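Entry type: protein chain
Record version: 2
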Amino acid sequence: MRSHLERSLQELRDEIGRMGGLVEESVEKTIIALREMNEDLAKEIITRDDEIDNIETKIEKNCLSLFALQQPIARDLRIIGSSLKMITDLERIADHSADISELTIRLAKNKAVKLNPAIYIMADKARSMVSRSIDSFIKQDMNTAQAVCKSDDEVDDLFNEIILDVVNQIKAGSQEVELLIDIMFIVKYFERMADHATNISEWVVYSETGSHGHLQHPELHARISEENE
């Protein structure tokens, strides 16, 4: 029974790793599409989102099956519970890639558009956080996970800087208000990517140590507490 559960948990990790790889690729292509105002690439990212959604559904079913049928205990429960949370964050990151891509297609219509260079710096930092958070899960590397969490402040600082610049342009009477609003959404989506990468890293730490602020799955929380008593 135990060996079967171990195999199932490894298969679960492999599936999440596969989903993470697709999400990481989407984020990278999103940044490229934005830099180049590449509408075709942006459309490809939007299409890819359905594939990631389908993988999330499959993993979620596997997690619930393990929870119901394999009688996991303590650390196993943490791994399954954390996996359920992580795939939600991964799916949201993919959603934000698609959102940015839709805005990129709109921006590409304006040949004169020039983005604040700080946006690309912020985007690269968010991408790095996503990549490292996925890597920390695959390798169960708590040091990397904790480093990702600390990086979130850098993204937040850039977000505030860019938003302030946009607001000042609007106040100054810029004629490109719709364009500036689209830019605000883009940087917000990158900021949210960083937040989700932070969440993933926090769940990596939780799965290894049992230390986390709270669980949003009460039935899992109850069983973990019972097993640890």
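Comment: The chain has a mean pLDDT of 88.
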